[in-house]
Amino acid sequence: MNHAIQPTTSIALCTFNGADYLSTQWASLLAQEQLPDEVVVCDDQSTDGTVALLHRLAAQSPFPVRILKNPVRLGYNKNFEKALLECTSDLIFICDQDDAWFPDKIKTMARFMVDHPDIEAAFCDAWVTDEQLQERQSRFWEWVRFDTATRSRWQSGEMMEVMLDGNRVMGCATVLRSSFLANALPVPESVPGYIYDGWLGLVGAARHSVAFIDEPLQLYRTHPQQQVGVRESDEVVERVRLLDRFGRQREKKLAPLREKQSQLAVINKLLRNRLNNNAPGLAALRRRLSHFTMRSCLPHKRHRRIGPVLASLREGNYQRYADVSANWYAPYLAALGDILE
C-alpha cells in the first residue's frame, strides 16, 4: 500500500424517522480511527425530530456535515441515490441511520480500496443484533447464504452467478469509488427482486469490480421500524414430488419459470443499457437467461422437449442453476419434469 496516497472519504447517510437510533450511529462515526472528510445526510421527510437532532449532532462534529431535506418523500432507493450524488470524496461509504460501526471500519475498507485499485465497490460482513445492539445473533452473511463455498465462487469470477441467486451486497456495509457512480446511477425505477444495493451489486458483478472484505465491521440492528432488513421468512416452499409431475397443470408448472425468465430479461436490458456489451459478467447473465427462456418456452408436445432439455443438461445448466440447498438429484428431477409436464 502506498501510504502517500490517501483517498478522501465521504459518508452518505440517509434518514427517515430515525431519532430513536441515530445518536448511537453518530457516536460510532465520531469514534472512527479514520474520520471521514465529510458526512452528507439526506432526510426523507422525517416527522419525529430527526432533522433537529441532526443539526445538534452536526454542530459538535469534527468533520463537515451537510444536511439536505427532501422537499418530497423519495423512498429509500432514490434517497440513497441523492445522497451518493451529493458526496464529493474519492470513496463513499453508505450508512444507515440505525446501525453502529466498529472504530476501524473506515480505515480497514479505505485501505482495502487503496490496495485493490481495480475494485470499484467492496462490502464487509456485520453482526446481526437486536434492537438494543446487545445480542450478536449471527453474522449477516449467514442470513443471505454467503457461505464459504459461495465466497469461493465469487472470488473465482462467478460473482454475477452468485448475485443472480440473490443479493449479497448490503448497502450499509458498502464502500464505492466515486467513479463507479457514472455506471451505477441513476438507480432504475424497478429492478425485479432487488433494491438499490442489489442494483449496485449487479453493476459491480457485471464489471467484475465488486469484492468482499471477510470481516464484520459493524453491528446491524434489527427492529420493527426498519424499512428494509433481514426477516425470518414465512414463505412455505412447495415440494414437487415425481408423481406430482404427471398430474400438475402445465400453466402452474410454467408460471415460476416465466417469472424468472422475465426477471432476468429485465435485468439484462437494464445492464446492457448502462454497460458495454462485453462487460465480463454479462455473459453469465445471458447464459442463465437463455436457459430459463428455453425452459419457459418448451413445445407443447413432449417428444420435442427432449432435445433442448438434454442439451441443457449436458451443458450443466440444470446443475448450475439449481438452488444451493437442493438435493443432488434435484437438477435431474427438474429436467425430467420439463420433459414430462
The CATH superfamily of the largest domain is identified as Spore Coat Polysaccharide Biosynthesis Protein SpsA, Chain A
The residue-averaged pLDDT reads: 92
Query: CATH topology of the largest domain, what is it called?
Result: Spore Coat Polysaccharide Biosynthesis Protein SpsA, Chain A
Strand content: 15-25%
CATH class of the largest domain: Alpha Beta
Uncertain runs with pLDDT below 50, 5 residues or more? Answer: 231-237
- Give the structural class: alpha/beta
- The radius of gyration is 22 Å
Biggest sheet architecture: 9 strands, mixed
N to C succession of SSEs: EHEHEHEEHEEHHEHHEHHHHH
Number of domains: 2
How do you describe this structure in short?
With about 350 residues, the chain is an alpha/beta fold. Helix content is about 40%, strand content about 15%. β1 (about 10-15), α1 and β2 form a beta-alpha-beta unit.
Describe this structure in words.
The chain has 341 residues and is α/β, with parallel strands linked by helices. The chain folds into 2 domains: 9-221, Spore Coat Polysaccharide Biosynthesis Protein SpsA, Chain A (Alpha-Beta Complex), CATH 3.90.550; 243-340, no CATH class. It is 41% helix and 15% strand. The chain contains 13 helices and 9 strands. Strands 1, 2, 3, 4, 5, 6, 7, 8 and 9 form a 9-stranded mixed beta sheet that branches. The chain is elongated and about 75 Å long.
